[in-house]
Design brief:
Layout: H1 3-8, H2 12-32, H3 37-84
InterPro entries: DUF6460
Keywords: Membrane, Transmembrane, Transmembrane helix
Protein name: Integrase
Length: about 90
C-alpha cells in the first residue's frame, strides 16, 4: 500500500467517489432545511459565545453569593473568635 493510499484510507478514486456521495447527502440535507454553510458556521460561533457568556454570568452570580454570605459569616466568625479566645 502506498503512502498516498494509506493517508487517504483507500485508492484516490474510491475516496473521491465516497466524498462526492457524502457531499451530495449533506448538501441535500442542508438544502432541505434551508441552511447555508455560512449560517451553520455563524450558529456555531454564536453557540460558543453564548456558552462563554453563560459561564461568565455563572461565575459572577457565584461571586455575588459568596459576597452576600461573607457579609453575614465573617462578622459572626470574628465575634466568635474574639469572645472565644478568653477561655
Amino acid at each position: 500500500m502506498s503512502n498516498l493510499n494509506r493517508f487517504l484510507g483507500g485508492s484516490p478514486g474510491s475516496v473521491l467517489v465516497k466524498l462526492i456521495f457524502l457531499s451530495l447527502l449533506v448538501g441535500a440535507f442542508l438544502a432541505f432545511y434551508e441552511i447555508t454553510p455560512f449560517e451553520l458556521i455563524e450558529r456555531l460561533f454564536n453557540w460558543i459565545a453564548s456558552v462563554f457568556n453563560l459561564s461568565f454570568e455563572t461565575v459572577l452570580e457565584v461571586g455575588r453569593w459568596i459576597l452576600y454570605g461573607a457579609i453575614i459569616v465573617v462578622p459572626l466568625w470574628l465575634i466568635s473568635r474574639l469572645f472565644g479566645s478568653r477561655r
